[in-house]
């Protein structure tokens, strides 16, 4: 082992940190040569140190890790590559191979493209655990961003952005600036996205260095993919900060609309997303957007189609009435086309279609059949389809739908059965023309006596009676009369059953028996049932009192006021009691026998405010949950998590840096004290200053670190302020910040 | 956009993942199986895919697709374009399948390095980049041990320089405006094959009435042409007008006038083109003009509503239950089309109860097999001519320990049919011409055209 070589290790390293500042007045070639040799030297010396250290600490010589290590330093390139692959495989199955970091790092300088990718992949995964060692790789990255092969340049800048170590920000600036101006569009488009990564890592620095402006400049790039990626990056940045960095003016708008037709499908989506948020004012502009966007409705990628639909819907309010109508017609077949996709995508499409449908009910009026259930649809899709079907029903297709729903009610899954029975009820309420047929179908279903649908059936019957109080009474009463209440399971159904008995007591046979059985289980029933039973018995006593019902009345009032825990039921009982205590029978009847208002529909609609928000959410997550984004994305929470993560990261980094220093001191001492005997004195003296160097350098790194924390501090104190307004956990948070301070 | 993408096995255990943004903790994926169970729309069972594909938990949104036995999962914290993510996942699956044949647990384990490479190239920082298989294949080539490489590694040091000279460049196609075809393609024979394929989905009830029908059509082009050819496809006017009307949203009127004119009353809808077709030109000039990608692709797809379409096969189904020990199923199939035409490869899948015993069949044509894993009896014909009628009777012994629901549910599954017919399509689409013009090479080439009608995935007949 050659001491002189070791001594060399640390001198060049200092320059390594900032390779761009290296002053070599020679040819470019010379520069590159020096880099290359330095890198080689570095790797060689590190490897020698490694083996030495390993000797000292007696690293286990068995096991997988040991094998990997052996393989990684093998003299055969193929074996090294093979081992890297095996390491990545181990990483994939979740084994912790982070201890191999230095060994992997040695393999970074390679011309083998695949090997490079594998090493980069490893670095991305474990950069967090070895932030300091990661810096050693920086040199190769920077060097690679100048490689003659554009694939390598792009790969390097892409990977650099993915290494989420704060230190990286110091090194990424220059290569990023350079690659943003690269001749090759492939490199430029990769660099554009790297700006978003950089922003995510350190937004302040990113803005200060003017990267956002450069990104805006790229919007004017000659290559469509670069434009698309710049848009995506700007959208991404805007989204993460909740502000708008993508300022579209009429010039950019023109450029975007022109680029739209040349882009890849994903680029088109980015542009369409940007367009959807753009608020066009002039009529000509609106027209231009519509003209350019509507051909996209014919694109084969469903996501492009839906994004285009969104853009057009957002413009609809700005166009004239007759054009609006023709545009709406135009939307229908693209919306339907979203359904020729895998079920999961269909589901999201259906959720979006529902929003469009609520906003513009005419859109899909003619497309009922498309939404029919297929036998092999997953359950969630079937349920969603029934929801849409009911909303599409009108006089012309009512019968067709009814026949279809009848089939569904004979399906196997109970959820589908319930939903379709409910849908038959909704259909009957919505379209009086088919209500007669619908009741017949319900009767037929009742005769088939499928247990699973009885509960839902009774609830539906109650709703129907409230919509058509007299028309179908005979059929419904026949069903109810046939029904014993113990065949019902859900409390909703029982409550409906009890309500119907009370409302139409004169038609029901064996009334007293039914009431007595119900009464016997009064205490164990659900509050909804108790409440319904209370009303029913009171009503019956006003219409056709018998000795039995009077006894029941006394009993129920007693129990309800004395033993029932539910406050509502209790209060209701007290009120009834008070009313019944007056002698004014007319007044009693007036209060108790009031008819409920006619129920028009049980199909629920979005409130108008929510609906408008949901239109903005089309194709986004909010459209699936049918909630505005603010209700499930908590941006402040997100920041909190981030800062917590970051502060945790910071602590880890500090710990690591400390151990690194300690290790290196040990290393240095080892070098001095325990080394081979044949070293000459000069060599060892050469090593001394260099050890100093390494310490200094690490200290430097460390102080950089503490220099960065004030900024961190301000960030978290801002959040502190935010929390101050919201809640009590502020002191805790502050103390954790102070802890952080103490560390420095 | 997506922060991280996972491939999980059918128990929800991660097989492979790629983290794009680092804002999702690693523990998040462990919640996924629980979420699947908790949100299942039919309480409880896990693997029947009954859980909605977009789930929310603790600030993280889980978006997944099922593929065979795998879950392909994306997660994000932000309110992003979920539809985009799903379509991307779908494309991702397609691309991976083109690399590893069949994407399943085993193949992911075996090909992790190529999958990582693809994941890297297809998405960056959660933003989809390139999902075109043909382009990707140009510069991401599957690792394989070729002789060259063995030699290169054997010579050791030289290996580096050798592989450097072969270093791959990003195909310029990638960022060209014609980003689906690379320049400099050459064929000795310049050929193009056009297939018009229409798939019929139909649902027929037990009385033989058609409940719903849908025709999905596609024009598939296989092109083996040199250079950068400009193609123009000519279609018959009736089809074109129908297509244009649907694009303009005028289906209603078109249909009305069509019926008045006594035409067949066919509505063309959802005309979709491959990205190479100049969309604006189609609308303005009724021209389908394009520069095709090399090889096979779907040029155009459409949907047709036909009011005059009749069921192509009439199925008569009878079932007799002999006191729950034995059942007899009788099926009569009649080919309900002109005797000049014939259908090929007809497959009738007849659902039967689970676990039946010693099946016996009587039939006069085709071949019959019982497939226990799917609980169906499969009746196959090589060819069936129009107007012909065939009968089969299956006798099945029921398991002695049976539950009645099994006997009930099998009747609710529809009989499924598969077939293929050549020489015509139901929509009336006709290819008038395909002009091929390569401005530089100026070669002659004539297209071959075929018309095929076949069943879709859902050509089924309800028996109850």
TrEMBL record, chain A:
Keywords: Membrane, Protein transport, Transport. The keyword Membrane applies. This is AP complex subunit beta. Adaptins are components of the adaptor complexes which link clathrin to receptors in coated vesicles. Clathrin-associated protein complexes are believed to interact with the cytoplasmic tails of membrane proteins, leading to their selection and concentration. The keyword Protein biosynthesis does not apply. It is found in: Endomembrane system. Its main location: membrane. Residues 62-583 form the Clathrin/coatomer adaptor adaptin-like N-terminal domain. GO terms for cellular component: endomembrane system; membrane coat. Pfam families: Adaptin_N. Residues 672-691, 721-744 are annotated as: Disordered. GO terms for molecular function: clathrin binding. InterPro entries: AP_beta, AP_complex_bsu_1_2_4, ARM-like, ARM-type_fold, Clathrin/coatomer_adapt-like_N. Residues 680-691 have a biased composition (Polar residues). PANTHER family: ADAPTOR COMPLEX SUBUNIT BETA FAMILY MEMBER. Belongs to the adaptor complexes large subunit family. GO terms for biological process: intracellular protein transport; vesicle-mediated transport.
From TrEMBL, chain B:
One of its GO terms (biological process) is intracellular protein transport. Its main location: membrane. Pfam families: Adap_comp_sub, Clat_adaptor_s. Residues 189-462 form the MHD domain. It is found in: Endomembrane system. CDD domains: AP-1_Mu1_Cterm. Keywords: Membrane, Protein transport, Transport. GO terms for cellular component: clathrin adaptor complex; endomembrane system. Belongs to the adaptor complexes medium subunit family. This is MHD domain-containing protein.
